[in-house]
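dumping this here so i dont lose it
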């Protein structure tokens, strides 16, 4: 079996710029659907405080809950089931602009 050796004096590992872009916090999450055991992660890129994040799993979403916890995570299948049962809406929401004073 052949081995490859790096040349002496070469930098190893990612650059400082790449490391800065990779900084973030990744948290494990579980689907809140009944009897669902699916797992994924949510990534908050950069340094805190975080303005948003993204799911490391296709189709995962979060929904506002009526009772704590205030946000629930759902896998794609459980989210579709909740939509079909009219428990959540898949319709995009429009942002509400704050009133302008003066």
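and the seq i came up w/
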């Amino acid at each position: 079996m052949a081995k490859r050796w790096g040349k002496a004096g070469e930098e190893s590992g990612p650059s400082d710029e790449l490391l800065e872009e990779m900084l973030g916090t990744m948290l494990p999450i579980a689907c809140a659907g009944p009897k669902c055991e699916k797992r994924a992660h949510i990534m908050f890129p950069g340094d805190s405080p975080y303005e948003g994040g993204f799911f490391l799993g296709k189709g995962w979403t979060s929904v506002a809950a009526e009772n704590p916890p205030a946000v629930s995570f759902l896998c794609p299948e459980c989210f579709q089931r909740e939509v079909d049962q009219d428990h959540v809406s898949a319709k995009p929401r429009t942002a509400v602009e704050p009133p302008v004073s003066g």
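The CA atoms of residues 21 and 73 lie 26 Å apart.
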